[in-house]
Structure formats: structure tokens, C-alpha cells
Amino acid sequence: MIFLIVWLLLISYAVFLAPGGETDPILSSIFSGDLGAIDPLVLAVFNSLGLFPLMFVTVLLLNDRQKWPAWPFALLSFGVGAFSLLPYFAFGSRQADRGIRTPAWLVRFLSSRFWLIVLMLFWVINALTLLQGFSLAAYQEAFFASGLVSVMTVDWFVLWGLSVYTVYRFYPDAKLKSLAWIPILGPLLVLFMNKNSKH
């Protein structure tokens, strides 16, 4: 029920409450390629919305035994983030008496140290964006001026919460699972450090 409520609240925020006028300054800068005009923190959060889905694809497909197949929702999250994942957690993630749907070759790849290290390197590269210097005041200004920034910020926090929940649900006995609280990187570290655990 909580996932359904959060989903409805997220949609309501995006449709009715998100600030911004007809022209979105951040979206215009992205489309024009003028990334230098965007605060590095805004850019890092925007880029992380492409990293969260990679992490969810990995974790969910390694544990795809639920009522509904996880892959459509995980793939849709590349475009709409938590908007696609919340219905899955609300209705489709109940345990089913079945084997894993994901092909064995894909399980081997997604659980491989190579893939996990690649994703962690993506996280590091994105984090390096912040070394350019960032301003919380500039982020706040962008939040109230851009519908994109305001919605993606709320989406980011929902994805963060879902990622922590996902690790604690699917890996209850994992070593150092509290690392999952580190956004994006944490769940990958948990998988990396518990690679020999059963999926």
C-alpha cells in the first residue's frame, strides 16, 4: 500500500505541484548542449537518474522470481525513473512459487565482478563532476525555476529509498547490507561483497 501511495503522490507532484514555467531553463541547456551553464550538482543528479536504472536492472533481474516479471519495469525506469518501479513494488513484487525468469547467461553477467566494477566506475565518474564546484543555492534556484529539476530531485529520493528497500528485501542476510544507504554505489558494493551468495 505504501508504494501505491508514494506513486500517486509522485504523479500528483509532477503534474500539479512542480514549479517552472513554459520554458524550462535546464532542459533548454541540455538540449542545446550548453552543459557549462548547469550547476555541477544539478548535472550529477541528472546523470544519476541514468545510473539508478542500471543498478535496478542488475538487482531486480538477479532476483526475478516475483508475481510479475521485473524487466519491463526496470527498463522503463531508464525513461521515467520511480514512476515505473513503484507499480511493480506495489502490485507485482509478491513472492511467487517459481524459479528465476532471467536467463542463466544474463545472471552470470549481471553478477560478474566485471559488470559490478563497470557500474561502480560510472558512479565514480559522475561523482567527479562535483569536483568542479557546486552551489546548493544554485541548486535551490534551479529547483524552483525548473520543472525538470524539481521532479528529478523528488524522483531521485524515491529511487534512493527503493534501492535500500530492494537490497534489504532480496539480501536480508548479506554482509554489510547497511552500505545500501550509499546512493547507487551502496547496493553495488553489497552485491560485490556477497557475490557468492545465492540469488
TrEMBL record:
The keyword Transmembrane helix applies. Keywords: Membrane, Transmembrane, Transmembrane helix. The keyword Ligase does not apply. The chain crosses the membrane at residues 41-63, 70-90, 110-131, 143-168, 174-193. PANTHER family: PTHR36009, TRANSMEMBRANE PROTEIN. This is DUF2834 domain-containing protein. It comes from Planococcus antarcticus DSM 14505.
